TrEMBL record, chain A:
Highest taxon of the lineage: Bacteria
Keyword Aminoacyl-tRNA synthetase listed: no
Entry-linked Gene3D superfamilies: 3.40.50.2300
SUPFAM superfamilies xref list: CheY-like
Domain Response regulatory positions: 17-132
Record organism: Steroidobacter agaridevorans
Protein name: Response regulator
Keyword Ligase: no
Any Pfam family: Response_reg
Keywords tagged on the record: Phosphoprotein
Xref: PROSITE patterns: RESPONSE_REGULATORY
Modified residues (4-aspartylphosphate): D67
GO BP annotation list: phosphorelay signal transduction system
TrEMBL record, chain B:
Family matches, as Gene3D superfamilies: CheC-like
SUPFAM superfamilies in the record: CheC-like
Keyword Translocase: no
This protein's record includes keyword Glycosyltransferase: no
Family annotation (InterPro entries): CheC-like_sf, CheX-like, CheX-like_dom
Listed name of the protein: Chemotaxis phosphatase CheX-like domain-containing protein
Pfam assignment, any one: CheX
Signal peptide: none
Annotated source species: Steroidobacter agaridevorans
Automatic annotation (TrEMBL), chain C:
Pfam families with a match to the protein in the record: HATPase_c (PF02518), Hpt (PF01627)
PROSITE patterns: HPT
Organism name: Steroidobacter agaridevorans
Official protein name in the record: Chemotaxis protein CheA
Membrane-spanning parts: 12-29, 231-252
Amino acid sequence: MASANAKAEPLTNGKLKLMICDDSNIIRRKIERELQIERLQVIATAANGKQAVEAFRKEPADVVTMDITMPEMDGIECVENLVKIKPDVLILVISALSDKATAIEALKKGANGFLCKPFTDRQLTEALEELLRGAGNDD
Amino acid sequence: MMTKVELETFVEGTTHYFATAANQPASVGSPYIVQEGRPTVQEFTGLISIAGKRRGIVYFTASRPMLTVMLMRMGETELTQENMCDLVGEVANTISGNARRDFGKDFMISVPTVLAGEPEKIVTPDNIRSFVIPINWRSHSAQLVVCLE
Amino acid sequence: MGILDLGRYKGIVFAITGFLVFMAIIMAVNHGKAGQFSDNVAGVRFLENRAQQPHAVYDAGLQLAQRLENGEKIDDALEALRKATNTFETSLSGLANGGMISDSTGDIVVLPAMTTKEAVVQLREGSKLWDSYRVKIDPVLRFSGSPYVATQPAPAPAPAATNGKNAAAVAAPAPAAPTVQLSPRGRRLQAALNDLNQFGAAAHGQLGKLLLDMSARVEADSRKQTDTLRYIQIGGMVAALLLLGAIFLFFARNLRKEEASSNRQRKETQDILRTVNEGLFLLDKDLKLGSERSMALNAIFRREDFLDLTFDKLLKDIVPEKTLRTAMDYVALLWGERVNEKLVKTINPLNEVEVHFDNPAGGFDTHFLEFDFNRVKSEGSLSHLLVTVNDVTKRVMLSRELQESQEKAQAQLDLLLRILHVEPDSLTSFLTDADVSLKMVNSILKEPAREESAFRAKIDGIYRQVHAVKGEAAALGLKTVEQRAHAFEESLNDLKGRPSLSGSDFLPLVVKLDDLFNHLAQVREMLSRLVDLHHAIATRRTAGGEVGAEKVDQWLAGQDQTQITKAIIAPPDLGETTGAIGGLERTLEDLAARVASSQAKQVNLRCAGLDGVPEAYRRAVKDITIQLVRNAVVHGIEEPSERTKVNKAAAGALAVEFTPRGTDGYELIVQDDGRGLQLERIKEVAVERGLITPAQAAMLDPRQTMALIFRPGFSTADRVTTDAGRGAGMDLVRILVAELGGRVGLASAGGKFSKFKIWLPATQSAVAA
């Protein structure tokens, strides 16, 4: 099932690759625009889970921001697929906090963190930095 | 606001009991509201408390004659007070089970308590109107009372 | 814990290592000394043995002399002397050259006792003595051949002289017997022997003594060494004991210190856990609660026993199942390393969770708890989750109340804005009427029903009441009430269409009824607040305070005046019905204007005689006029463009007249100058609604056609809206009139007008003005 050939090639400029996955065009652009982390570079955006998995197969990102409710393939299934392709990918779930159980489901499938919509650019930056600092951190 | 679905769940729990345990379905009478004062309480009452999304009580209250006939229909020869209490308790239990199934995630539902007479022990939340749904069975009429915020 | 990371055990490990090293050194020394000891034993034996040698030399000399005297063969005696000499010389020179001896096995052993100064001096003296001795021996040893005269027969073989004692015994008669004939060499030998034996008599004893001295010396040395060894052993033992004691003392003190400090820490921890307000506990990997926890937990969870409790058991009976499952999932996630602790705090399902404790008095007590989870790492890996629990019931309640009151305030503001447009008296009377209507609905519902017919019979009665409420609400512009009543009507219509009915079908009705009751209670509360507010403003004004005349005030002022008027001076020309009827006129005007504007029409309403409606008919007249006015605007009056085409004024004229007819009762006329009843359209609709067949339609005369509009379920409006289209309007008018014992007449001319003429009988209580 997992395509083991997908190996992350670091970008030549040494930056980590980011993929944005959200069905809202506005949110995708907002993330791209407001991304203020030197270490990250957006390599792909996807409007649904299916697109995301396809893009990820071609070029796996190191970090992914993931919406939960999307057409075609929802965020939870998408997380599951991405982790199969690249187990050490860092996934930040970004979703409205309507149902905590759903968010927890996504984390169970392999996401690393959660950011609640709506978010400020500062919250986004902080969440991504925290994500890069390492999963499983206790401080 | 009380929803139709919620009322239906409690009513279904009650009618379900009659259809299965008493071997004869009950019919639902015309429901109404009691705004002031206590709703009807008959000789035997099975009651559950509810908390969570809604708070309050739901009870099934029936007369001794009705319970006597029910017991007889169920093949019970000992028509004791104890057995009648058991019976209303069982109905309350079925209502509680139905409610758990339908709203388990939003409601906390207590174990049933049984009262023989003692209407003063039935404490409805203040200033809350009750829905009374008559449950007609043979020539008798019991009441399902739903008093939830 | 790493192997080299000894932590607090570092001290004891070093001490024990030191002790072992010390013991090893003592053992090594001991072993060395013990080796020396066996050397010394060998040395003593050797020296005691060698102490006989000088004596052997001396004996050999005596024996030789004896032989010579006896004229016996001397070769072997000479050889014995040589051998004894050589043996002793070897031994002595070895001793003199650094105390070397060879033990019984032939190994060379060095005796350190022989190298002491005194021993060396003694040995040197011994060597000197031996040298002198040797000087005497050498001439004897150089002798060879026979010492006897050649003619003399060969002597008898000499007896074996290996034993010194024998030799000495034999040597006693030392002077040679005169019977033996010695050769000159023999005589020389005899002389040398005499010289030797003379010297040896003293020397051999000295030399023997020297060796015995040496032996004693070695023995003494050995004894000394044994003592040393014992001392070393004792010393080592003592030192080891001391060291052990020191270690023991040191650690005892350290342990005491550590224990004291850990006791202090434990006590501090306990103090903290006892007094802290937060519930604190640790969860291990099996999600079991740790033994250390804060006392506050007892109060928070209303239990004393937390022993062997698992987290899910702690929560099981107090939170709904779904919450519990989500919570356990969340905690499991925190145990995983993958999830970033900070980035999941927002989805903690137990952050402000509603819990329910069984109340012994019955029912539940509801609280809100706030759980916080923190990973506890020890040695770099996750060892526990620290769980902090707070009872935040008060906070949550406050914020909920705040939110509720905000929401309520918002709803009330909306309501207020609507109410502000309504004439207060109309509103009061509406509320009273509506309450009566809804109670009527409830009592219709309460009527026991088992058969379907009984249920069906209720529907029309309920419908009428709800429809009246809706109509009035619409007239007053109370949109929120109107919408609710409309929804109620929809439910009733749904029931009407059902092939069979039972109590279950009525459940939606009680729910909607409840909703309407609640909503009207809100409106009532709003109104009473406004009245209060007005009183407050009025009081302040009379006290001289200046308050801007706002819209609220104006509105209220009207109401207040009415009330004052009513209470103090009832104007004779108005009577006590003034308020309500004045209210109806205004209600109808508002209704006409509102419906017209929603239909993009214009209308002028003229009312007359409504002041004279007797009390008994007031309600019915109100319901009827509302219905007819609404119908006239919706169905009768044309749009302005259409009207101007046929040379009518853009605004339609609508008249409502109430006229007392003495003993004949009363006449109510509602007339408009609109398009009139469209008979063909009425027929079509009646056919569509299934009221008549197309064949019947063809046969109807205009009069019969007009009568169709009073049939239940008829409505000509295309869409169902709150303004019209229910089809119940005219039906309701007919029923209301019939209930009062009156009649309805209808006249209409296509394109010109419609005129409803209602006759009501005289009543006892109805006193015409």
